[in-house]
């Protein structure tokens, strides 16, 4: 039974969104876990068969290496899921592109600081600020590209609408 505010279409839309959240979360989780192997390999030339964790984090989990590995994978998987969930902001039709981009940026920024604290990375403030500036520039470039693509598409649609209107006016005369 549907309330006066809920239609069958609304229920279907909610189901589609739940599926998107689940799928993007799973893909993001897998990506976050994969990054835990590949990023340290590129930065430190570490072997790909190891998960890298700090000594501080190992002490935090009571010198239990298994717990350190599993918790590192879990935290990085959740960070990856948050990054992918953030792309759903762009699908909220009521939101302007700038708001969706800022919300996605803030989610990733805060999402990055949480693993930094939980996993005892103890990055210097200068490095964190550098990472944030790089992310801001990256998000601005992403916003600019998406804006230009959308603007071109809207202009094309407006041109088509003008052509249709002109044809309709010609047919009436």
Account of the protein in words:
The chain is an all-alpha fold and 173 residues long. It folds into two domains: 1-122, no CATH class; 124-173. The protein has five helices and no strands. Helix 3 (65-85) packs antiparallel against helix 4 and helix 4 (97-118) packs antiparallel against helix 5. The longest helix is centred in the last third of the chain and has 48 residues, at 125-172. It is elongated. The termini are far apart. The relative contact order is 0.08. Mean pLDDT is 79; it is low at 1-9.
Number of domains: 2
- N/C terminus separation: 50 Å
Percent of residues in beta strands? under 5%
Form type: elongated
Helix content range of the residues, please? over 70%
Major β-sheet, in short?
none
Broad structural category: mainly alpha
Q: Which residues sit in consecutive blocks of at least 5 with pLDDT less than 50?
A: 1-9
Task: Provide the gyration radius in Å.
Answer: 23 Å
| Average of the residue pLDDT scores | 79
Strand runs, count: 0
Number of helices: 5
């Amino acid at each position: 039974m549907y309330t006066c505010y809920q239609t069958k279409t609304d229920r279907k839309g909610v189901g589609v969104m739940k599926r998107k959240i689940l799928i993007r979360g799973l893909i993001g989780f897998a990506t976050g876990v994969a990054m835990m192997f590949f990023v340290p390999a590129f930065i430190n030339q570490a072997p790909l068969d190891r998960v890298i964790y700090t000594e501080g984090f190992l002490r935090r989990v009571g010198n239990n290496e298994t717990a350190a590995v599993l918790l590192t994978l879990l935290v990085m998987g959740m960070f990856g899921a948050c990054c992918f969930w953030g792309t759903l902001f762009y699908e909220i039709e009521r939101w302007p592109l700038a708001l969706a981009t800022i919300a996605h940026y803030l989610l990733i920024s805060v999402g990055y600081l949480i693993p930094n604290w939980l996993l005892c990375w103890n990055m210097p403030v200068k490095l964190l600020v550098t990472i944030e500036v790089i992310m801001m520039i990256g998000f601005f470039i992403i916003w600019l590209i998406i804006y230009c693509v959308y603007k071109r598409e809207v202009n094309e649609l407006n041109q088509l609408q003008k052509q249709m209107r002109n044809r309709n006016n010609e047919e009436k005369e």
